[in-house]
Input
Amino acid sequence: MKLRESASITKFNWRNFIWITAVHIIGLTLCWFYFTWQALIVFLVMHYLTGMVGITFGFHRLLSHKGFKTNSFIQNFAAFCGTLACQGGPISWVGQHRVHHAFSDTKYDPHDMNLGFWHSHIGFIFNRRADLNDVAEVSHYCPDIARVKYFMFLEKNMILIQVIVGLSLFALGGVLGGATGFDWYNAMSFIIWGVFLRLVSGYHVTWFVNSATHKWGTRPHNTNDDSRNNWWVGILAFGEGWHNNHHAQPRAARHGWEWWQFDQTWIMISTLKTLGFITDLKLPNRGSKQEISLKSDDSTSPHSSTPELTSQRKAV
Ligand SMILES: [Zn+2]
Ligand SMILES: [Zn+2]
Output
């Protein structure tokens, strides 16, 4: 991987700032005024669909790292759910994530922890680099994803898709809540809990993987970055908190390597494998300590075969 020249240009992104601020204000205030038990169920279903099926299963372990293969229906559904998390479409998410792995904890890491917790958790979304803020630019980091028309469609229609799903939830809430007519209160609770509050929870769960797991936790593998295994992020982020394991062997579809390292996404993957929907599964190579500790020599790394990356990485 070779960094784009635009990687050195950073601009304050007002659109992202206004969006993230508005979602937090609406979600965190109105959820107290519009609550129903049905809305809580919608929140949990949407949280798992977007956060786990979409982001950790779809965007991360499948599309970014190719830790397994699955049929096109499951892949496309997962990419749709990932787009609903509103963290960018599949192209910008995968492109940025691959840059993170290639340049972890250096000044070219999109959410470099060396710039502080605030930057790695949320600040990097407001101060966007030009190479990650433009579809054409970020496509260079993931040409395999960018060339798929369906992924480009999701990338360009992320907000529209969110609006359509939000209005559908609104209608569903109105119909389900009213015994005699449209229940406006239940409709509002569905959209507040199923869209706005769920976006807030999904954002922070993902952001903790960028921030907390490069700051707090253990480092059983001597990777050439500052990634950590963090148990509470492991629980919150569907298994993604076993981040030092992940940086040691990025392609491995299983992040919780020990029996006690709870990894919900792995439970999903292994269940689908049992049902016959998963092939070409990449598992952690638990061979010698040396083998699993040196990321730069890790033959399972998606970046290991790119000489430009190696030279670029050494230069930073
Ligand atoms: Zn990381
Ligand atoms: Zn990764």
The beta strands are 10-12, 69-70, 127-129, 278-279. The two ends are 14 Å apart (CA to CA).
